[in-house]
Amino acid sequence: MMFQPDIETLPREELEKLQLRRLQALCRKLYANVPFYRRRFEERGITPDHIKTLRDIRLLPFTEKQDLRNNFPFGLFAMPKENIVRLHASSGTTGKATVVGYTRRDIDNWSDCVARGLAMAGLTSSDFIHVAFGYGLFTGGLGAHYGAERLGATAIPASGGSTKRQAQLIRDFGATGICCTPSYALHLYDAAVEQGIDFRELPLRVGVFGAEPWTEEMRRDVEQKMGITAIDIYGLSEVMGPGVAVECATGRNGLHVQEDHFLAEIIDPDTGEILPEGESGELVLTTLTKEGIPLLRYRTRDITSLSCTPCSCGRTFARLKRFTGRTDDMLIIRGVNVYPSQIEAILLETEGLSPHYQIIVDREGTLDSVEVQVEVSGANFSDTVRDLQKREQMVQKNIKEFLGVSTKVRLVEARTIDRSEGKAVRVLDKRKLKA
Ligand code: DLL
Hints:
By secondary structure, the chain is of the alpha/beta class. 31% of the residues lie in helices and 25% in strands. The strands form 5 sheets. Strands 4-3-5-6-7-8-9-14-13 form a 9-stranded mixed β-sheet, sandwiched between helices. The chain has a 4-stranded antiparallel β-sheet with strand order 10-11-12-15.
């Protein structure tokens, strides 16, 4: 079942006409209302009138995460504050987070996109959907929640945490669908097993998982353990939140981009050139309908490829392949985005620590674990063990407070962390996620 079949099956020619109209309107709006974009247009010697075909998108400037940070918090908003009904933000240290604002219509469109996605996954208005993405500034919880309600299903706002209790809730309420990160699904499974709850015997039948990279192996594992169909959902806060692209249960061969709302390109991350269909590169997204903070050619840093070949589900929206990684060093730890530089900043603010550190990421059972090893500067290692422990705990607390991830911090003696000859190896990711 499709949530909005008229749009989801629009012939591609018509879809492209719609995209062009929307892109032109967007350029006019940004040129008139957002000084940042007006400057960018002027630097390139273009005006919105230069956009005559969809291919002309190559004339337009890219937008990067740094642009949002430089204009923190509201510099890229295209609407007066009175029209903004909601804010979300990506995780990050204060002042460095990226903030996004939604108008009433933005929330409506977002709800539609997620409702379409849940329908693609095989959920309907009679389903009970357990939402275990975090509720808060993160877009996962509220995004999935509004989508579930828009579909007419019953949303169960479980949010993150209290995992044992969540397993009981799923049993007691008879949830038929669940939304969370794929690694949390596996964690939930373990918590259920510990209590003698067998998900396979419960009505649960569909999982909609995303917010972090996962593999076909993980899909098979979670499907088999929980007795469900597992579907991939993609999105990012800067562009909207979950629901930018979602896999359909029929084709299960890539994630359909909601192309009436987003224009997707794949570029060569080094040259910025647009790559032909099917080639792997960096996904770039332009928001076609967003009002609060529309973005032109936003560089997601996510690596994938795009295909417009027809899908057996009947939808005409192009599909993205499962994501294989990123072009930058961003880590996703239990669904929270973390840059090594943010951890570094916290270490360097702590007296007595040196800039030599390594972040070791692993997956213990089903959950990500992070150990931060950092060298103390020469004189300080003679401190008592108690002092060192105190300092470790303080850094741990600061990382948790500012970045939202739990880590284990270990202070080590000076010169014990391997020095590399070229770039320092800051991150050791042992999770082996690559398919
Ligand atoms: O993670 C939004 C979201 C919530 C998506 C719930 C899906 C479900 P951010 O916190 O801004 O937003 O992180 C966005 O997460 O650029 C990708 O690197 C990664 N990511 C999101 N979904 C997937 C996925 C949300 N299905 C960043 N596969 C993105 C791989 C994903 N990576």
